[in-house]
Design brief:
Shape: elongated
Structural class: alpha+beta
Low-confidence stretches: 1-5, 341-353
Mean pLDDT: 90
Distance between the termini: 69 Å
CATH class of the largest domain: Alpha Beta
Number of strands: 36
CATH architecture of the largest domain: 2-Layer Sandwich
Number of domains: 4
Largest sheet: 7 strands, mixed
Radius of gyration: 30 Å
Length: 654
């Protein structure tokens, strides 16, 4: 089945009409020594595979390596690309995933022979599209167009990214045991066949491409050969020895390489000087490129503990040189200098640029990019709209956030793409308040952000934190919540009228106990009932009290409610969730936007509004402010002195 032409996709600014070239050479990244954060950069996974470019011409496809070799062995990828009914040049990486879903280079190298693992072509850039050369267009706009051209579920995958948070992203990639990350300046053009500072790579372990120059005799029970003699070309294009690798082989790999070596054996060493080897060396033409991991470079320029990873059939031996890590900050400065060479009449303040803005809030400067980035694709609501909403609602929402640790749920690519939670905020601006709290699950201290002012609220929105998730307790009394919550959480089988009926039953129970309570929409399909505690009780005491309310509720309407936590055991009933009342558990704050269609807002309500006929989607980013300005903050009493739990329990038991 052919992919239909996607009509009316906007062509990025800077694109020019041109014929599609037959073949191109890719842009290359500079290796740097450590990760960094910058709101002008995006960060992608560094795939452990073969760099591959795809020329697509309405069903005719050429998939080739950076040095022009055609990849005929990856037929499933080519077949899928042939269904793309447009002209395009895509840049990406062919990988093979193991059973755990991680790319493994040795699986890729052996794929042609063994067909093991899951083949993927991960595309991350678009150089040409339907008559337009896109290489001069900003990277972020090229990627936005590319994301709309790739359907999910096939062999061809769009490579997503995170914005700004390179350090945290690198830490997560390192924990997963993956190769590293790529940093790219968001406004950078695509520089064909050039290695520039506008793209950088940071590796979790040291890797080096190397030329196989010979092999040694095997020892003991090993067959075929002992180790590989490795080299690279220096700046004078002379072959230089960088060590020998005897690790990383299985029996099949040893035999496969040995058979290749017999076809390229030579008598004389390819080095123009004598190298030190204890075992007899058999020399080969310096034609095969491999990749090795190693621990460090020695003072004489050889690798310590090199381990063979696989052959690099996509690399030209003449291009293989020792890769040296550049200093991160110097490289980033160089990238900035490249950008600053634009015409002088373009050096306007970013506040005049509709896609970026410089804001000064409370004496703090925020540089905000990608204001036109669409976060709600079906509604056309942008990152700029989100920031404007939170600025306008700040005086109402901030009292509910002050001094509370925040769990940041970020949607850098909009609500239809994967979000991620960011708890550690070690690299937030100095003026942003944070607090370190010990995490028993992670067995480490987590640096939580605290939103105490409008500037921090905008900083969070700038990170595409659509919804705001504060703790129930504050700094100074973290063990004692200011409120407990009854979270009315329906299943797909429940109607919202049943949710309202459940809220009314809970209200009748609370009235019997003379318990003050306040209600708001979740912003999705449920309702939240807050009971002020005034930080007089522990989380455990508050949770036990909420458990009593939940039990009384389900005893009155057992046909539609349950306190069964397991989704499969709820039998399609509404879950009266009292377990949200634990340290670190969070719900969307009052006045928080939600990542739902229509950009709904978690809106406080008056109890007399809790009747059949209204729906949480009635309140959204476009009309919420008008309602709040009219009614004021009707949720403010949640922050009051709180109930007397003992008196309330006596009344309920009576």
């Amino acid at each position: 089945m052919k992919n239909k032409i996607i009509k009316d996709l906007p062509i990025p600014e800077g694109a020019v009409k041109a014929e599609m070239p037959d073949m191109v050479k890719p842009m290359l990244a500079t290796l740097i020594d450590k990760p960094f954060n910058s709101d002008k950069w995006l960060f992608e996974l560094k795939w452990d595979g073969y760099r591959a470019l795809a020329n697509i011409n309405n069903g005719n496809v050429k998939l080739y390596s950076r040095n022009g070799l055609t990849f005929t062995q990856y037929e499933p990828v080519v077949k899928e690309l042939e269904t793309f009914q447009y002209t395009a040049i895509m840049d990406g990486e062919v990988v093979v995933l193991n059973e755990e879903g991680f790319p493994k280079f040795q699986l890729l190298q052996n794929y042609e022979r063994e067909q093991e693992g899951a083949l993927q072509y991960n595309v991350f850039d678009l150089l040409y599209y339907n008559g337009y050369n896109l290489t001069r267009a900003p990277l972020i706009e090229r990627k936005e167009l590319l994301s709309k051209l790739i359907k999910p579920g096939g062999f061809v995958k769009y490579t997503d990214h995170v914005i700004e948070q390179g350090i945290d992203f690198f830490k997560e990639v390192d924990k997963l045991g993956m190769e590293g990350i790529i940093g790219k300046k968001m406004d950078s053009p695509y520089r064909l066949n050039k290695r520039t500072s506008e793209w950088v790579k940071i590796k979790t372990e040291k890797r080096q491409e190397a030329i196989i120059c010979g092999y040694t005799e095997p020892k003991g029970s090993r067959q075929y050969f002992g180790s590989l003699v490795l080299g690279v070309y220096d700046d004078d294009n002379k072959l230089k020895w960088i060590g020998s690798s005897g690790g990383g082989f299985d029996e099949k790999g040893l035999e496969y390489l040995f058979n290749k070596f017999q076809k390229i054996r030579i008598e004389k060493s390819p080095f123009d000087y004598k190298i030190s080897q204890k075992s007899k060396v058999y020399w080969v033409k310096p034609e095969l490129v491999c990749e090795v991991s190693f621990s460090e470079w020695t003072t004489d320029g050889s690798m310590r503990h090199p381990v063979y990873q696989g052959l690099r059939s996509d690399k030209n031996p003449k291009d293989v040189k020792r890769e040296k890590e550049a200093k991160t900050m110097k490289t980033i400065e160089q990238a900035e200098e490249i950008t600053s060479t634009k015409k002088s009449n373009e050096s306007k303040t970013t506040s005049k640029d509709p896609k970026s803005q410089s804001l000064t809030i409370g004496g703090h400067n925020l540089q905000i990019t990608n204001l036109s980035k669409i976060l709600w694709p079906d509604d056309g609501i942008t990152k700029g709209d989100l920031i404007n909403y939170y600025r306008s609602i700040s005086k109402f929402i901030l009292p509910h956030l002050k001094n509370r640790p925040e769990s940041l749920n970020r949607y850098p690519n909009g609500i239809k793409e994967q979000s991620f939670y960011q708890k550690n905020n070690e690299n937030a601006p100095e003026w942003v308040d944070t607090i370190k709290i010990r995490s028993d699950s992670k067995r480490e201290e987590v640096n939580y952000l605290i939103c105490n002012n409008e500037a921090t609220l905008v900083y969070m929105a700038k990170l595409a934190c659509i919804e705001i998730h504060p703790w129930n307790s504050r700094v100074g009394s973290l063990d004692n919540p200011d409120w407990i919550v009854m979270d009315i959480d329906p299943s797909e089988l429940n109607t919202f009228e049943q949710v309202i009926d459940t809220a009314q039953v809970i209200k009748s129970i609370l009235d019997k106990g003379k318990i003050d309570a306040y209600i708001k929409t979740s912003g999705a399909t449920g309702l939240h009932i807050y009971i002020p505690m005034g930080s007089k009780y522990t989380y455990e005491e508050g949770r036990s009290f909420a458990h009593v309310i939940a039990q009384l509720t389900t005893s009155q309407i057992p046909e539609i409610t349950t306190i069964e936590r397991s989704l499969k055991n709820r039998d399609g009933k509404i879950y009266v969730d009292y377990l949200q009342n634990s340290e670190g558990q969070t719900l969307a704050s009052a006045y928080s936007v939600r990542p739902k269609p229509g950009a709904s807002v978690s809106m406080p309500l008056k109890w007399d509004e809790i009747n059949h006929g209204f729906h949480p989607s009635d309140f959204n980013i476009k009309n919420a402010l008008k309602r709040v300005e009219k009614n004021g903050d009707i949720f403010k009493p949640v922050l009051g002195k709180g109930i007397d739990m003992q008196k309330c329990l006596k009344l309920l038991s009576a």
